[in-house]
Amino acid sequence: MTTTTTAAGRPPEDSDADAAAPPGPPTAGDPFDRDVLPTPKGASLALLRSLLRPYAARGRLTVVLLLLQQAAVQAGPLLVAYAIDHAVPALRAHDHGPLLAVGAGYLACALAAGALQYGFTRSCARVSQDVLRDLRGRIFRHAQALSLDFHERYTSGRLISRSTTDVESLRELLNDGLQELVGVVLSIVYVTAMLLYLDWGLGAAAVLSAGPLLLFIRSYRRRSKRVYARRSTAIAAVIVKFAETLNGIRPVQAFRRERPNDAAFGRLNRVHERVNGSATLEMARYVLLSRTAANIAVAAIVLWGASRVATGSLALGVLAAAVLYLRRLYDPIDRLGMFLNAYQSAAASLEKVAGLLAQRPAVPEPATPVPLPERADGRPGREVTFSGVHFAYRTGGEVLPRFDLTLAAGKTVAVVGSTGAGKSTLAKLLARFYDPTGGRVLLDGVDLRDLSTTELRRGVVMVTQEAFLFSGTVAENIAIGRPEAPRAEIERAARAIGAHDFIAALPEGYDTDVRKRGGRISAGQRQLVGFARALLADPAVLILDEATSSLDIPGERAVQRAMHTVLRDRTAVVIAHRLSTVEIADRVLVMSHGRLVEDGTPAELIGNKGEFASLHEAWRDSLVQ
Amino acid sequence: MSDDAHRPESAVPTPRSPVRSLLRLWPYVRPVRARLAGAAGVAVLASGTGLLIPLVLKWLVDGPVAERDAAGIWLGGGILLLLGLAEAGLFGLRRWLVARPLASVEAAMRAALYRHLQRLPVAFHDRWPTGQLLSRGTTDLQLLRMFLAFPLTFLFVNGVTILAGCAILLAQRWSLGLVLLAPIVPLVVLCSVFEAKYSVAARRSQDQVGDLTTLVEEAVLGIRIIKGFGRHRAQARAYTALTHELRATELHKARLLAAIWGVITVLPETAIGAALILGTVQVADGDLSAGTLVAFLSTALALRWPVESIGFLLAISNESATAADRYFEVMDVPEADAADASVLPAAPGAPAPDGLAFTGVEFRYPDAPAGAPPTLRGVDLHVRPGETMALVGATGSGKTTLTALVPRLYDATGGRITLDGRDIMTLPRDELRSLVAVAFEEPTLFSATAAENVLMGGEEADGDGVRRALRVAQAHEFVAALPQAEHTQVGEQGLSLSGGQRQRLALARAVVGSPRFLVLDDPLSALDVHTEARVEAALREVLATTTALIVAHRPSTVLLADRVALLSGGRITAVGTHQQLLRESAEYAHLMSGADPAGAGPSSAPSPADPARTAEETER
Predict the structure, then answer these.
(1) Residues B48 and B79 reside in one and the same domain
(2) Dist. CA A114–CA A106, nearest whole Å
(3) What pLDDT is stored for residue A314 in this prediction?
(4) Cα diameter, chain B
(5) How far apart are CA B147 and CA B106, in angstroms?
(6) Is residue A302 within 8 angstroms of chain B, CB to CB?
(7) A267-to-A229, B487, B517 alpha-carbon distances in Å
(8) Angstrom distance (rounded) from CA A388 to CA A442
(9) Any CB–CB contact under 8 A between B371 and chain A?
(10) Among B336, B365, B380, where does a domain finish?
């Protein structure tokens, strides 16, 4: 486990790692690998401030409630003193007035303290819950807006860690921290004032004694900041491993990975255990040091006061009172520690969250979106143009050298080539999962970068090999591209792709929850659901990136039929290793090492005896004779 | 998506006593019990020392200072210093005593949870979303550590303080003491009402956190789809809705907490007020000395903090009890091996080679709705030793399910599966899984190097073995081209590979250990034709000496096999060579060529103008 460094300690070349980061190999200095994304200086504090700002008014109200509550609580002892000094003599003089006043006053204070406590607790919870809700939402929205390359490197475990354990530590600060801090400050101000009022010398000595205490507080802050940052990283690593194991439980069990995993998890868990223990020990160290300093100060001031009484320069009564106040001056040291504790833990977490929020989407939404033009022919397909496009990952290694390409509206284009030829990169550029390093990708003449998300997804939809199903019903899963679609249309899409029968056979048909009883759906069926999504979304341009790999041949046929009927006249880009889909294409592009090496109709290319012809022949051979 | 949409049915909270839930922590706390008890003792000592200091101060002021006794002043100062140092030391000591041990309790519980989860049946994981399990392994355990560190100790220390204080109060003046103690009965009643309501709310909130975690996880795993359909705002809205629900629950908790804190503040204060008035009357009547009243009331005031603290200590204890419930809810699910304990050890002696045999195998998913037909209803199939059998069936016919039964990811609910004549139910899972290697339909790579991912299939393989396996899977070339060749990190935390690349690594993993039995679930689906042809050529050599069951969607994969079995309607309906089945089985011919099954009636010649109907027909 690498230790974290502060923003200042990071090499400068890492500081711009937020732009299109490559899925390159993580190196020792990789901020993603170490879970320390660059955070601008002061970003965590700025984040806290921006979170609190909308609730400033309620926050102030909360503080006022707390101040009043403390006043009501502190009034008790004063009333006791009054009762003994005034009510008793008055009562002896058969005057019940003072006693009644004390009784009424005490009762009022008790009720007020209770009511204020109630009000404060609720008000504080409101502020803290509002802030936490905002923070959770911000993290999630931001993460969702970030580009694919970010997610390929950040891992779900870390994102979970950000939105659970890191949010939790802010919760602790907001829930208990405020009460601690206000209590501490109130008590220090009150007691110091009383000491100074009693005797300037003693008061000044007490104020001076705060010097070493401040040093300890500073050193604690510095040390705990480090250890909490390490702890936040350590728990994220634990979560990442945990999540990875659970998501791959089948291979874990089938390949008997349980014991090696126990060992690997044990290592990460122990790192967290050590840092966790160290964090608590920092607190122990602080309490020990600050208590020692405070108690030495008490003894020294008492001695000095006592000797002044002996020489007659200080009244005995004043010393007695001062001594009692002194004790109370140092009482809140622990509570200050608790507050610092919560603060540091929250600061470390906020730093991580701020690092996440500082990541800029490599594929930003346009400030002034441009709508797609109405097509004159009224046909649904649109023309795609790659104009001087080239693409490279940031670590270098140009994946797509500069190329120009126009795909006619309403035509089906198949892209073939071996792994790494750049087919998927081409598709991802067209779907705007990435932006090209140079050049433009145009849809009916409009740069994809100028389209709003809604417009873009009406224009281009990509179906990938991984047909992930979200929690929810089958119908909800199909309707992802058009949530408002009526049930009839959802069913029509499913029928068109041949998915209706198996869906209807599920326990609750389209309303079956895919994560619940009987909602088990095979990989091939998932791909059909994925395809139904695309049919329902009804885009102008459809990209199929290996979207039929798990389908059997009848399934594949159904997809082809759907493309001919439901998706007739849409522009389609089909990437498939199986050439069955290619048969229906109007045009075939063969890619090799990022370049287009062949381009033509299937018939032309088969006649050319080039790469496609050989692929086609191999595929023919693989079919039933 | 409602708040309980992602929660498995078994997670419905059952009312349980919080004390009993917390007592279940004992096995984990046991190893550190001495430290924990020591810390509680030190906490008592520290409060005692804290109480002594004012007494010394009082003595110092009343005695040596008043008498101008220089030696006495120095003595008093010295005692004060020593007590102060002792107090500081005890404070530090208490924290030091529990810091590492409690971190180790948390870690041990987390490791136990992880260990346990890995060994739970796959069916359990089908039901439980990762997020729910994760939140049990993180936030819940952190809460439990906090509980052991503070509330537990202070419930004890403050409880002792309150009892001692009450005794002192009663001894000083029993009538006033009774007035002060009067609120105890209503307090106890109100606290238990609070406790019952609060634990329901706490449970709901913790479950909602689990749901949020699940949503975050899904949003990352499904990011390509979300992006591909421009759904990230909708996804964020769903998340926001859930955070609103969590906020509502938390505010409900806060209302309960505020009410009980208010009560805990008001009732004792009122009692003190009543005692004050009663006491003042008594003093005025001369029944009571002013000094006794002051002493009595200062004792009562000193008890204020311990009494007030009970409110939040109870709240934390309650949440901790809920966290413990959530934790043990998972830990109480029996491990897959637990049911095997009664199984007789396998018959001694080397088993006769008999291949892989399914006899009357039935399977229904444990969570299948009642009345639904079982997924597999009597599968009979014999894969002879050294034979390669292709398994063909329509989408969703149960092929993957059947393959999952062999390494016992699920247990057949009826019938027998034998490996070389030995019932797999009598084999220890570990041994069984060392005999059978699997390549899954969805190739999962773990965050490790490419070589390590392959080696997971056979720890004993060496570098040559890995290279051989990579060559069989035709993965050697692209692996060699990776930045650090086979030592390149792949998986979620490493280089992301294409589907075909992952599939080939997963295939290499399956063959690296030269397993006796090989189960491959559509292992070549993501490969291009050229690569597929090369993999098939290399795989043939491996298959020549291995008993293998291969799920196949395509003729090219089927041709790897000696014979083909057709799975239909939960049974094997035909077994034979590819050519035989093509001739004899209409369903098989349909699956392999897309031609419509013979005898399907008028729709056997579909009109292209009616594609939706055709799609339906072909799905039959």
Answers:
(1) yes
(2) 12
(3) 83
(4) 121
(5) 11
(6) yes
(7) 19, 21, 33
(8) 11
(9) no
(10) B336
Please name the residue ranges forming H helices in A433-552.
Answer: 453-459, 474-478, 487-496, 500-504, 523-537
Q: What pTM was computed for the model? A: 0.83
Amino acid at B321: A
Nearest Cα neighbor of A408 from A375, A381, A387 is: A381
Tell me the C-alpha distance between A216 and B39, whole Å: 24
Q: ipTM of this predicted complex?
A: 0.85
The packing angle between helices B529-544 and A611-622, to 10°, is: 40
In contact, A622 and B555? CB cutoff 8 Å: yes
Residue B392, pLDDT above cutoff 80:
yes
The answer to whether B75 contacts chain A (CB < 8 Å) is: no
Vertex B501, ends B495 and B506: CA angle to 5°? 100
Confidence band for B6, pLDDT divided at 50, 70 and 90: very low
The alpha-carbon gap from A539 to the nearest alpha carbon of chain B, in Å, equals 10
DSSP state at residue A544: E
CA end-to-end distance (rounded Å), chain A:
58
Which residues in chain A (243-272) have CB-CB distances under 8 A to chain B? 243-258, 260-262, 265-266, 269-270, 272
Residue A88's identity, in one-letter code, is V
For residue A253, which of B398, B288, B408 has the smallest C-alpha distance? B408
The identity of residue B109, as a single letter, is: M
Domain that holds residue B570: 356-444+510-576
Question: Which token pair is B91?
Answer: 């404070």
Q: Looking at this protein, which amino acid is placed at residue B21?
A: S
Q: How far is CA A35 from the centre of its chain?
A: 13
Which helix (DSSP H) or strand (DSSP E) does residue A415 occupy? strand A412-416
Task: Sketch out chain A's domains with CATH numbers.
Answer: 40-357 (1.20.1560.10), 384-622 (3.40.50.300)
Considering the domain boundaries, does residue B269 fall inside one? Answer: yes
Nearest CB neighbour to B103, from listed A280, A287, A498: A280
CA distance A175 to B257: 12
In this complex, do A84 and B593 lie within 8 Å of one another by their Cβ atoms?
no
Closest CA to A496 of A566, A404, A413: A566
Nearest CA among A153, A82, A69, A152 for reference residue A112: A69
Cβ-based neighbours of A484, under 8 Å, separated by 6 or more: none
DSSP category for residue A372 = P
Shortest alpha-carbon distance between residue B307 and chain A (Å): 14
- Give whole-number Cα distances, A231 to A33, A44, A270, A280, B582, in Å: 16, 17, 11, 11, 62
Residue count of chain B, please give it.
Answer: 620
CB B220 within 8 A of CB A152: no
Query: Residue B302: CA atoms inside 13 Å, Cβ hemisphere, count?
Result: 18
**Ranges in chain A, pLDDT < 70:** 1-31, 33-34, 324, 394-398, 516-519, 622-625
Residue B18 falls within a domain, yes or no? yes
> Domain containing B519 — which CATH number?
3.40.50.300
* B300 → chain A, closest CA residue: A77
Lookup: tokens for B393? 């069936």
Q: Are B139 and B19 contained in the same domain?
A: yes
- Chain A residues touching residue B81 (CB < 8 angstroms): 295-296, 299
Which structure tokens are listed for B352?
A: 């006769």
A424: closest chain B residue by CA: B498
Q: Which two tokens stand for residue A422?
A: 């750049």
Nearest residue to B554 (alpha-carbon basis) of A502, A379, A579, A329: A579
B82 Cα distance to chain centroid: 50
A215 contacts A221 by C-beta, under 8 angstroms? no
SS3 label, residue A367? coil
Is residue B143 within a helix (H) or strand (E), and if so which, with residue range?
Answer: helix B141-149
Report how far residue A361's alpha carbon sits from residue A460's, in angstroms, rounded to the nearest whole number. 19
pLDDT digits (tens, 9 = 90+) for B206-242: 899 888 988 888 888 888 888 888 787 788 888 999 9
